[in-house]
């Protein structure tokens, strides 16, 4: 079996060595321009079209959870990957725990009013503030899939009212589930902290806009852990100015790296990280990919296949 590997920034030698060890007998090589030798599987992130085009592959594995960049490239270059070749993505493989850490630490930061105390500190003001009632600190998770469900699990022990919104109804313990466009207004009503973990699709681009924000509780918070295109940044800034939103924690942006002149950098109530909420953990990802390839070779059922029509 031949496997080709391409990632613009990973430690490719480590991946090739570890994957080879996990799949004895497989020949794993780094794909380089001009390599047209046969391959059975391809592992990719931001692949050049010529890497995949015209190959008789058994499957392609995306080296991340979101496949929006691969699917948008496919839209522009449908010849890159035949419809019949399945595309897989990473399901959790260590990203769930990272999202849990990120979400829980920031929710607690806001709940304990550390943002307010930080602002008071700037003015050397000693001023104990009233606690927020826990039962009114409702947390809503947009996108209740692999990562969204992990985040609800980590938040559950803290006792906040929890709700999620997804395409189909979920039954996660202690979480009120809302499904579909028609239930979005109900989901938003009273939501104090909105955590976004939706995939980037034609239906979700720009979903966090002024209309959506206006339906949330006053003095609410936004945490965007999914993709920058979900948020209309001008509407976010306007909501921060009007006071409708008290703060935002952003990991992803409409343009990455975020240009130095973007107003988000300077905003005192916007906290930011540079798209690191959950990164691909090589050992876990290799374990999943090796296991899935072995199962595919034996004709067994596998998980993680992307529905290209649905867009995630
Ligand atoms: N910031 C970061 O470091 C990272 C960001 N991500 C982002 O997180 C996203 C989510 O990842 P997973 O949980 O693994 O995806 P998933 O596919 O398991 O879950 C997606 C959820 O969104 C819901 N959904 C999709 N379209 C919808 C619609 N139109 N209306 C209502 N609900 C809809 C689905 O029902 C599902 O509950 C990825 O697509 C990626 O963009 C993923 C990893 C790291
Ligand atoms: O896996 C993904 O989709 C990511 O965004 C990784 O940072």
Automatic annotation (TrEMBL):
Enzyme active site: 227, 275
Functional description taken from the UniProt entry: Catalyzes the NADPH-dependent reduction of glyoxylate and hydroxypyruvate into glycolate and glycerate, respectively.
Entry's localization field: Cytoplasm
Organism of provenance: Leclercia barmai
Family: Belongs to the D-isomer specific 2-hydroxyacid dehydrogenase family. GhrA subfamily.
Protein name (Swiss-Prot/TrEMBL): Glyoxylate/hydroxypyruvate reductase A
Main localization category: cytoplasm
Superkingdom as given in the UniProt entry: Bacteria
Catalytic activity from the UniProt record: (R)-glycerate + NADP(+) = 3-hydroxypyruvate + NADPH + H(+); (R)-glycerate + NAD(+) = 3-hydroxypyruvate + NADH + H(+); glycolate + NADP(+) = glyoxylate + NADPH + H(+)
């Amino acid at each position: 079996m031949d496997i080709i590997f391409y990632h613009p920034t990973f430690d490719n030698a480590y991946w090739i060595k570890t994957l080879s060890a996990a799949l004895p007998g497989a020949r794993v090589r780094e794909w380089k321009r001009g390599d047209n030798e046969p391959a059975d599987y391809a592992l990719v992130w931001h692949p050049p079209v010529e890497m995949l085009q015209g190959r008789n592959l058994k499957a392609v594995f995306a080296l991340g959870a979101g496949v929006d960049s691969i699917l948008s490239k496919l839209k522009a270059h449908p010849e890159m990957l035949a419809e019949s070749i399945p595309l897989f993505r990473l399901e959790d493989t260590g990203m769930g725990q990272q999202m849990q850490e990120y979400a829980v630490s920031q929710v607690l930061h806001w709940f304990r009013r550390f943002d307010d105390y930080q602002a008071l500190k700037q003015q050397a003001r000693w001023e104990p503030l009233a606690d927020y009632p826990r039962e009114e600190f409702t947390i809503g998770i947009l996108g209740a899939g692999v990562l969204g469900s992990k985040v609800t699990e980590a938040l559950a022990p803290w006792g906040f009212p929890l709700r999620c919104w997804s395409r189909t109804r979920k039954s996660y313990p202690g979480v009120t589930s809302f499904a579909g466009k028609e239930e979005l207004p109900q989901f938003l009503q009273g939501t104090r902290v909105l955590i976004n973990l939706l995939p980037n699709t034609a239906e979700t681009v720009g979903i966090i806009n002024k209309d959506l924000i206006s339906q949330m509780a006053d003095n609410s918070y936004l945490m965007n852990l999914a993709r920058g295109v979900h948020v209309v940044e001008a509407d976010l800034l306007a909501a921060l100015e009007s006071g409708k939103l008290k703060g935002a924690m952003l990991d992803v942006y409409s343009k990455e790296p975020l240009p130095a002149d973007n107003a988000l950098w300077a905003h005192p109530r916007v906290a930011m990280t540079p798209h690191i909420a959950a990164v691909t953990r090589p050992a876990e990802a290799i374990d999943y990919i090796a296991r899935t390839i072995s199962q595919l070779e034996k004709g067994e059922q596998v998980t993680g296949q992307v529905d290209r029509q649905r867009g995630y």
